[in-house]
What does this fold into?
Amino acid sequence: MSIFTDPKLGLIPGPFHKKLEEQNRAQNWYDWAGYAAPGVLDSVEFEYFALRNQASLFDISPMHKYRLTGPDTTAMLNRLVTRDVRKISVGRVGYAVWCDEEGMVIDDGTLFHLGDNDWRLCCQEQMLTWLLDAAWGFDVSVVDETHSVAGLSLQGPTSYAVLEAAGLDVSKLKPFDLAQIEHSLMISRTGFTGDLGYELWCDWDKAEALWDRIWKGGTHQGLRAIGYEAVNLARIEAGFLTAGVDFQPVHATERLHRGQTPFELGLGRLVDFNKGHFNGRRELLSKRENPRSLLLRFDVEGFKPSEGSLIYNRRKKEVGHITSGIWSPTAKRSIALAHVRMPDAGRSSGLKAEIYTLQEGKWRTRMARLTPVTKAFFAPPRARATPPART
It folds into this structure.
C-alpha cells in the first residue's frame, strides 16, 4: 500500500506556477512564505550546471517586498538599518541588515532606491509590522507589495545574451544598478549566486507574459528553469548567508542569546556608526570588539558534505558547528560556512569538523581539517564585467 501526499497541499500558487508546473518533472515543492516553490524541477545537477555554464531562471516572487515612500523615507530607513542609506544613489541597490535594540540581526535584505524618497525593501522574513513600528513618527507610507510584484532571477554567463535576444537592452547596467526598462518592467543587475545575473520585476498579472518572452529569448542560450537546491549550491560558493540557516533572525528565536550581531556574521562593513542614531547602535558600540563567535568560511578536507558537523579545536573541545557545507562542483572542493566561538574563531587554525556519513547502512565518522578562507569560494570576473559578455 502506498500513501500519496500532494507536496503542494495548502500552498499558494505563485505568478509563475503554471509555467513551473509544466516543467516540474520531479514534483519537488517546498513552502516558501506560503507559496509552492520548486526545490528541484528535474535534477539538481542539470540545474546547477545550467546556472554556472549557460543561463537559469528562478522564481523569486515569494520574497517579501515592501514599498516605502514619503518625504521622510530616507531618514526612516537610516534609522532602521545599520548602514548609511544616503550612500545608495537613486538607481542603485544596496545590501543591508537591521537589528533590534540589543543589536541582534532581525533580517537582511536588499534596498532598491527607485527615486527620491522612494524605496523597495526585499527580504526573507515578514517585516510589515516591524516596518510600520519603525515608521512611527515619520511621514512614510509602507505598502506590502509581496502579492502584487512578481520577480524572476535570471542568472548565468549567457543571461545578458538571453535578455538581448528578448529585446531588452541592459548593456549599461553595472552590478547593483537598476533601471525601468519598460513601463511595467524593472531590471536590476543583482542576484544570489555570485555570477553574472539579473532580477526582473513586473506586475503580478504580467508575469506569465514575461516568462514566455524570456523563455523565447533563451532558446539558443541553454536557458533552464531551476529550483532552490541549485541556487543553494551557488549561493554557498559565493559565500552568501541565508536567514534561518546561517543565522537566526532574532524575532524567530525562542531562546535567549540565539541572535547574532552583524559583527558576528562578518557584516561589520554594513555598520556605520558615523551616520547618526539607528536601532541597536548603543549595543553594537559595546559589542563590536567582543563578538561571542564569528561566521567563517572554510575549505574542508576531503569530499564529504559537512553540513551540520560539529567543530573541535586542538584540545578536542567542541567550539562551533557548520551551517552550510557542500561539495562545490565548480571550485572542486568541499566548502563550508560555520559559526566558531571565540577565542578559537580568532585563531581559526587547528580546527577540525567531525563529519558523519552513512555508508550502506553503517554510520562512519571522520575528522576533517578546516582551512580558513577569506574571500568567496567562487567569484568569476564575468559577474562584474560591463558590458557583460554574451557567453
Summary: The first helix runs from residue 17 to 23.
